[in-house]
Amino acid sequence: MLAPVAAGVVGAMVAGLVAVAGAAGDDAPDPEGGTIPPPPATTAPAPPPAADGAPRVAQFHAPRRFWCLPAHPGQAQVTIGWSVPAATAVAVLVDGRRVPLGLRRRPPFAVLAGTPAGIGATVVFACRPRTRHRIEIRWRAGDSPAARRVVSVRRAGRR
Questions:
Q1: What is the pTM of this model?
Q2: Dihedral sign (CA 33, 17, 64, 78)
Q3: Which domains does the chain possess?
């Protein structure tokens, strides 16, 4: 059984992903009563690796702030999105320490939404005592050097 925080994190993450998937994947209503099918899916080839052989990061998005979770005031989360088409492995670090992937009873941990290549992850960590956290994402393609992105997030004021 999942701990309440883990269930809450998963629920919030799934709700966000369903909203995104629903907006992009469902047939849209047609003003004349039918439906307009979505455009056909296309698969673009992975971009070539960087000069050092690391996989290329095609997209990366991360917030700059975090809030303590209202239902779990001692915990916070940020959702980071990426596209690294050639990635076969990913690691998430919070404040320089690698965190486990998958749900855990206590933070820190990260839950992937998809594969190492993308869509991203929700990173859960302690809200206190720190007001800033450094989150680093590392991707590899096989035995390649790692591609890295680092973001510093700080606690926002009260909502």
A1: 0.69
A2: positive
A3: 4-19+52-155 (2.60.40.10)
The DSSP secondary structure of 26-94, one letter per residue, reads SPEEPTTSSEEPPPPP--PPPPPPPTTSPPP--EEE--SEE-EETTEEEEEEEEEEEE-TT--EEEEEE
Q: Tell me the pLDDT tens digit for each residue of 5-46.
A: 444 544 444 344 333 333 333 444 444 555 555 555 444 455
CA dihedral of residues 99, 103, 106, 107 (deg, nearest 10): 40
What are residue 68's DSSP bridge partners?
76
- Strands 132-140 and 59-61: what pairing? unpaired
Cα–Cα distance for residue pair 38/89, rounded to 1 Å:
31
* φ, ψ (nearest 5 deg) of residue 3: -65, 155
DSSP 115-156: BTTEEEEEEEEE-SS-SEEEEEEEEESTTPPPEEEEEEEEE-
Distance in angstroms (rounded) separating the CA atoms of residues 16 and 136 = 22
Question: What is the predicted pLDDT for the residue at 156?
Answer: 87
